[in-house]
Amino acid sequence: MLPIAELRNIHQTYRLGKTEVPALRGISLAIAAGEFVAIAGPSGSGKTSALNLLGCLDKPSAGRIIFAGQDITEVSLSALAATRREKLGFIFQTFNLIPVLNAYENVEYPLLLQNVSTPERKQRVMQALARVDLVDRAKHKPNELSGGQRQRVAIARALVTAPAIVLADEPTANLDSVTAGEIITLMHRLNQEENVTFIFSTHDPRIMQAASRRIHLCDGRITDEADQSWREVAYA
Amino acid sequence: MLKFMQLASRNVFRNKRRTLISLLVIIFGASALSLAGGFVLFTYWGLRESTIHSQTGHLQIYHRDYFNREEEKNLELGIDNLQTIREIALVNMEVNLATPRLDFTGLISNGDKSAVFVGQGLDPEPEAQMMGLFGRPESILALNNVTEDEVVLGAGLAQSLNAKTGDYLTLMSTTADGALNALDVLVKGVFTTGISEVDKRFLKVRTVTAQRLANTKRVRNLVLLLGHTEKTESVRQELQTQFDRAGLPVVVKMWLEMAPYYRSVVALYNAIFGFLVFVIFVIVLGSTANTIIMSISERVQEIGTLMAMGTSRRKLVQMFLYEGLVLGWLGAVSGLALAGVLSWWINHAEIMMPPPPGWDRGYRLGIRLEPWLVAVVFGLMLVTAVISTLAPAIRAARMKIIDALGHI
What we know:
- The structure holds two protein chains of two kinds.
- Chain A is α/β, with parallel strands linked by helices.
- In chain A, 37% of the residues lie in helices and 27% in strands.
- Chain A is built from eight helices and ten strands.
- Chain A has helices at 47-54, 77-87, 103-113, 118-131, 147-159, 177-194, 205-210, 229-235, and strands spanning 5-16, 19-31, 36-40, 62-67, 70-71, 88-91, 165-169, 198-202, 213-218, 221-225.
- A six-stranded mixed β-sheet of chain A has the order 6-7-8-3-9-10. A four-stranded antiparallel β-sheet of chain A has the order 2-1-4-5.
- In chain A, strand 9 and strand 10 (221-225) form a beta hairpin.
- In chain A, helix 3 packs across helix 4 and helix 4 (118-131) packs across helix 5 (147-159).
- Chain A is globular.
- The termini of chain A are close together.
- Chain B is of the alpha+beta class.
- Chain B folds into two domains: 2-51 and 262-405, no CATH class; 59-226, no CATH class.
- Chain B is 54% helix and 18% strand.
- A six-stranded mixed beta barrel of chain B has the order 2-3-7-4-6-5, surrounded by four helices.
- In chain B, a hairpin with a 5-residue loop joins strand 5 and strand 6 (180-191).
- In chain B, helix 2 crosses helix 12 (313-348).
- Chain A binds chain B through residues 52, 55, 57-58, 77-78, 81-86, 88, 90, 92, 94, 96, 98-101, 108-110, 112-113, 157, and chain B through 3-4, 7, 10-11, 14, 301-302, 304-315, 400-402, 405.
């Protein structure tokens, strides 16, 4: 089986003033459909950089990114935008909902970008809200929702386009432990029951525990893999 | 598109106070431009109609060579087949009135003192009819005795000759043959044109009196009044064709060609109004740009999120342009509504303007909000708002997504 996303010998360097700071130093990994992957590591280890590259939000300094069998390293910014629009969903640490839109409209937004018809949009948005148990909060603005509810709206927004991968950057970092637990359970359920592929960057040990695969990064390198099955998937 | 417009509208009102300030600037700009433009149009209209009705008529018919060469003798290039020309002109349904004029110059004397004058021979009744509400026809209607040679004097001229109604004065001028002729005339009244320099030299007599003085049956020109000013050019062409066909050696001139004062006022006002448009354009541009820039700087992370979800740069620019459009639309509509209310009030308030330079009486302040002016101001406000949005929107869309997402 081909991996959905693959990083091959990726180097990523950022410039801070006159200094070049290496964030990733030759990492390779592949993600298969249905995985529940946690990328862990201390601050500055390169978690977010790796996630940004997998999410087509950034281009690497060196190495290749393969998405659904296609090398997308050199494609245009508009092509990357199209990939994000069609194939990826994002969940952010600070939820990043659009404050002027209510829960329904926030979830609807990615479908507007895809020019989905109004009846289909309505059906898919309500389904997505039902999946996160927020149908009764559809008309609420983000500032009328709790942190956990906001993150569930963000999850519904990430899922509504049926993406190949959902990327989540520390999704529980801004939540209390009970709510964080609920969010982890929800995402795990979606992974188990609906085969949604999740990739997280996290410090949260509970996510690490729930993950089917854990990748540890330190100083821009993969230092440990709790589940080596990805290598078989990637290079079978 | 509707959904994105809706999103833009909500974003515009995120910071109500800032939006209100911007809106007030656009409202001010739209209403100031409309009122200034309406005032200019009123001035053009008033000056045009008063020029036509009290001076030039819509069309003037002259001898074909009158404007091409100098006359060797007085009225050498006058019109002598007046009746035929008048009949042809009056057949045209648009021509309401045709009246002859004969201008002449000379000396006027009270026996003790003489003064140079510029005279006009005219037919008082049709001239008074032509003046309508745009002049003071009483003065020329005083020339009511066809059997006697009468004159009405400009106020300054009457003063310099110490002449009053009932006095007799002597007019001296050259005849069509080049001889000197004199005529005693009865003073029937005094008039003012509104321009004091003109009043010091100007006098009016009946056409027959002027013809008697010049010893001719000719007139200088025939003045036509039309039903509609906007049809002037088409009627001019029609009449010119008819006169040419009839073999009459005349040329038909439009009022605008005979009104240098009107043309210079229009040129001056156009320059002033153009400058005003530029200043308001800059103010509105700056204010709207400030609102959009502030709005963008507060929403950097949100812009990152929108781009992360796959919003293209083009779409993002479009979304900000919608915000500019919403701001411009609201400001323009409110500003034009305000201008409508203010112009109604001004038009009913009987506010008098001071006399223009060289004039001795002011005129009523009026505003003409013509549909095309409203459309131009509306369009200008929208275009200004969109232009001011464009640069910050493009800059926002060029942000790196990861930088925008990491922005706090």
